[in-house]
User: What shape does this take?
Amino acid sequence: THFGFETVAEGVKEQRVGAVFSSVAASYDTMNDLMSLGIHRLWKDHFVRNLNPGRNPLTAPPSSTSTPPAPQGWNILDIAGGTGDIAFRLLDHASTINHDAHTTVTVADINPDMLAEGRKRALSSPYARTSRLSFVEANAESLTTIPSSSIDLYTVAFGIRNFTHKDAALREAYRVLKPGGVFACLEFSKVNSPLFDAVYKRWSFAAIPLIGQLVAGDRDSYQYLVESIERFPSQTEFRDMIKVAGFLVPGKGWEDLTGGIAAIHKGVKP
Ligand code: SAM
Assistant: This one.
């Protein structure tokens, strides 16, 4: 591959992934729009709408004096949350659709430069100076600061393909989720139709590194992003990895988006 990722030591791979995201942090949001022709916004909107985060006080079971009050809000962990794109959507949905002012999101990312962009964006959001949104530097493969069985919803969007040990990250997701908690992953996947795949590969291998060079002045990082998509497991392989980590997988286990360019996988901790 371009960076020879298959042959370099794992620690070196982690450093190189770090360098890629430090390099793209400032231009990350603009580049996402250009590379996906804006479609990543629709995928992210769908991902969040489908998860329906937040506890709606109007539909929550009534509390009586003999039962303790229902816990307020969801405790959400957005792993590889980068500049906060998913976190803002989760909180907006909880607040405006479910009238829930208590749900919290912790954005965890290994890269301080991506987190810095997220913190900057948070300053002009309704969640500035509230305890509903927080940013922490953490490696998804070892979430030492997150207690076991403490999380209602674990989200990871366009992150897991960059992890060195995906199986370790899935085991950590399982550990931190409460029983009944949901693991939800939005990630690039495998295109179903050979014809569409040929068009898509032409676009991604030729146009994306070129846009990276012209707009962000960084061809190599965007070349890496394209190659990491190519190496990521298929829908069924990834579904099986989620099962191996101990999750129950609803239905066939995933939903294809835009012909399989991306897919949403889910697992429930029993
Ligand atoms: N979730 C955001 C979104 O959808 O816009 C950001 C996705 S960005 C493509 C991938 C993120 O994964 C980067 O911010 C990178 O720093 C982070 N990342 C890579 N390896 C990680 C790891 N082992 N643990 C936590 N985050 C990681």
Notes: The longest strand covers residues 177-188. Strands lie at 75-79, 104-109, 133-137, 151-157, 177-188, 254-257, 262-268. Residues 194-216 form the longest helix (23 residues).
